[in-house]
Amino acid sequence: MMWESQSDSAARHKYGDGILTSNKPAVKTEGFLQRGHSWYVATDIPSDFLVQIGEANFHLHKYPLISRSGKLSRVIYESREPDVNKIVMNDIPGGFEAFELAAKFCYGIAVDLTAGNISGLRCAAEYLEMTEDLEEGNLIFKTEAFLSYVVLSSWRDSIVVLKSCEKLSPWSENLQIVRRCSESIAWKACANPKGIKWSYTGRSSSKMSSPRWNSNNNSNDMMKDTSPSRNQLVPPDWWFEDVSILRIDHFVRVITAIKVAPALVTELEKRVGMQFEQATLSDLLIPCYNKGDTMMYDVDLVLRLLEHFLVQEQTESCSPKRQSFSEKHLGCNLNAKARVARLVDSYLTEVSRDRNLSLTKFQVLAEALPESARTCDDGLYRAIDSYLKAHPTLSEHERKRLCRVMDCQKLSIDACMHAAQNERLPLRVVVQVLFAEQKLQNKTERLLEDGEIQYLDS
Predict the structure, then answer these.
(1) Which residues contact 292 (CB under 8 A, 6 or more apart)?
(2) Number of domains in the chain
(3) Can you give the residue range of the structural domain that contains 108?
């Protein structure tokens, strides 16, 4: 999809369609030359400074860099070494790709700004301290201008930039790129549908194409509509597909800012929940934005996403197509639930440290998965133990209730040994653990006698 404001063309014209150059080229050059993992400046002046980023090596010159980068200026002038000629910058946001663009800017080489590279370059400019104190119209200023006047006026560009921010934490958060893109997307998603016209993009005429934004409702000012569905109403969920590709925490930032009907938000949560298996622990650690809620993380949202995933899995497993699949495909379905179970247990361990997390919320999330999803309850035991540490005032009844979510028969020998000596567990649970441990030991001894397990000589 593409959403563009009427100011897009003017903004792109003002900023040269994203072609960026510095004011004063410090070294005359025709560009950069790449040989393998090394970059060289096409000039007769020998290189006197090496920048290493991972396997990438940039053979550059000190003066163009120090004249525009406060960080590199300090490294070179404030170093105890008399002649610094090398720096390693593996922690630069955006990696070597962003640094290459920043270095070209220092040399006065034209840089093509796009939605795909602007966030990395903006973060790299901040890292390199390319401020107005060093040169008027330095890289921070120019990347900020492109973000503000070009990216944030475009639906498509805002989505692309927000997606690219996933690899730029915490820089993209601290520089408010995530917040600004989220608010831009939210504003466009909940705007008056009368301001959206569907324009034909040249694809199959049977498919509805991209929306274009017109902030003026005057029909005389509307952009010419070339869509084959000229009179078709804009569907209320036109933005779902684009927003649902975002990482879960960024998706939450968007829907938190969107003021739409709860039914639409629920539908969007369903789409994101279907991708639950692909999430990581950091994706799920979403701050709680609800006013009046004292919890650190939005456990309720994670529970809803998990429920949508489980409903989808159940629907697929009951469908005729799924039933006709081979055992291999059915095994994949079970593996998906097992991966999600491990993810949920890790999430519970993390959020259990929050003293404001209620026992009920912990229990509901732990029991949301079917018993078949967990073949081992070690992860669940770690989460329970962590919760007990963070909530030492729980009554005996509450501790028993907490431990009911765990099946002692699914604990490993190591977990049983730890639990048997855990004073935080209720006595009844410790007895169950000892019984489970004894059964495991007996089973191991039988397998040894039958020759199914052999000790390896050290």
Answers:
(1) none
(2) 2
(3) 14-153
